[in-house]
Amino acid sequence: MSGIEHLLAVMARLRDPQDGCPWDLQQTLASLTPYTIEEAYEVEEAAHAGDMARLRDELGDLLFQVVFYARIAEEQGDFDFDAVAAAVAAKLERRHPHVFGDTEVRDADEQTRLWESIKAAERAGAQRHGALDGVSRSLPALMRAEKLQRRAARTGFDWDDIGPVFDKVVEELAETREAVDGGEPARITHEIGDLLFACVNLARHAGVDAEQSLRRANARFERRFAAMEARAREQGEDFASLDPDRKESLWEAVKAEE
Length: 258
Description:
Elements: H1 3-14, H2 22-26, H3 29-49, H4 52-75, H5 81-95, H6 97-100, H7 108-125, H8 141-153, H9 163-182, H10 185-205, H11 210-234, H12 244-256
Helix pairs in contact: 1-4, 3-4, 8-10, 9-10, 11-12
């Protein structure tokens, strides 16, 4: 029995109405989604860390999620795991005519344009005619903003260089300050959203993944904050009770050590 056959058999056993696992039997397509998102992020973390043993395990957990969805769909008479695998294989062949057909491409840029034209045709066939149609609303906000911007850019709705993008960030920052000074909660929320959207656009023009950039900033802050707390403890100080100047000096000290 192959690994995937074994996994499918385990899944079937877990969902057995008589002898299966009560928790697994309670799950629905909707209830699984938070676990799927969590597993995808854990795959990302393991991949970036280069931890191959952990990556293998996390990929297994993510694959189990796919098998779980397919099992529920099979029980409902919709599709099974084999149909999922067959559909994605067919999609990859369709989107790579330069590999599986007679189309020729000169470089990666031309292949990307071909890929997008094929996807656009698929959207049209699925009655999705707008350039932004089909961008999942479940994506993290930064990722979705970047994807929306990239889609819009393919229609020519974009700046030619990064200069005006910097100007837009400055403009949105000024409008955010005005909103905060005015004390209007609804406008503050609106302007901060515009500022974040502009920052994502800046990251895109700079060739930086905004989501990854913010995650790394989060990790740096977490690491530095923990180091400040540790240094304060070593010196017999209660970090929370320290005055702002002392906290700032600790912050600069731990930054200098990186």
